[in-house]
Amino acid sequence: MVAVNILTRANIRDAKSTEIAQLAKIWFDGWQDAHARIVPAELARVRTLQSFEERLRAASTLVRVADTGAPVGFYILKGAELYQFYVSSSARGSGIAALLIADAEGYLSKTGVHTAHLACAIGNDRAARFYEKCGWFKTGTVTDEVEVPGGTFALKVWRYEKSLQ
Length: 165
Hints:
This protein has six helices and seven strands, in the order αβαααβββαβαββ. It has 165 residues and is of the alpha+beta class. Mean pLDDT is 91; it is low at 1-6.
């Protein structure tokens, strides 16, 4: 019943600059849950709460939020890429993620994207299952230049794509 209550009150909207700290905490916690044990230690070391705040400030005009009275998830788009996608641990399993990804796909489609893509850390099986359930297809393994303070870090990831036509 809690999941239904969360879902019926969910609002997907543009992020507000005053929410950067809340969103960074969702991102940091989600990244720790999903990635800290499966990525190289040198990448995990630079994934601090402050680094996520800085990245959100830089991308704030491209951020959409799932709000149930407070932010419980968000995504960031970068061109045809679903660049970041995170849901708080309290909202996982509630349907919020499905609402968020549908919003992202709709936005991408409206902007003329025919095939969207995203990167999923190799070994992030929970996320991979979710993407596949939503109709995304793993197209292979690629090297992604992920943002880190002062540059990029080469990380092998699973690439997923979805036709939006």
